Amino acid sequence: MNAKRVERIWRREGLKVPTKQPKKGRLWLNDGSCVRLRPYYRGHVWSYDFVADRTHDGKAFRMLTVIDEYSRECLAIHVQRQIKSDDILAVLTELFAKHRPPAHIRSDNGAEFTATAVRDWLGRIGVKTLYIEPGSPWENGYCESFNGKLRDELLNGEIFYTLKEAQILIENWRQHYNTIRPHSSIGYVPPAPPAILPPAATLLYPPPRPANLGDHNRRNSNLAGGPP
Description:
It contains six helices and five strands, in the order αβββαβαβααα. The chain is of the alpha/beta class. A five-stranded mixed beta sheet has the order 3-2-1-4-5, with helices on both faces. Helix 3 (116-125) links the parallel strand 4 (104-107) and strand 5 (128-131). It is extended and about 85 Å long. The model is unreliable at 29-34 (pLDDT under 50).
């Protein structure tokens, strides 16, 4: 039994033989070079995209997700009923002031991302835009993967009764994603864990010892004029 005999049986029984599917092009060339720009350091490439959901009353709202592709950190999730190009500029302005502008920013070809005001403003700042090919969401894989986690871990399991509730719960999940949730692609550590004090043995200078409570009380008594 081989493929040709199966095709003959299909034809004899009047079945339609499926045509051979064309192979999809890879993101790398034969010489190992990469077509898609890969992130090499924090702040090198950001990506942003939209996610849609509904509150309990059936009204739709949108989420603008912005991530750093190198660190996998979610920089912002902006939640509103409608998000236009002016809202995108406001979100990016706040992020640029907090984290510095990235070298590149990746997105699809949505009207909000390709708006003249957005492209001109990014060009004046010096941020290069990377637009994926139409109908090729895998070229924005980092953001698409994050959006899938957002939907699987939060949106599919929550009922949002108001927009304010959605904003609070989504922001809480973003903080959990950045500081607590382990990420497999970066060694099962959070993308942006909170700062911790390293062990004392690894420090060049030992940390200061806490003051003795008895010494503190005697010092206060002396200052107040009481017995030593």
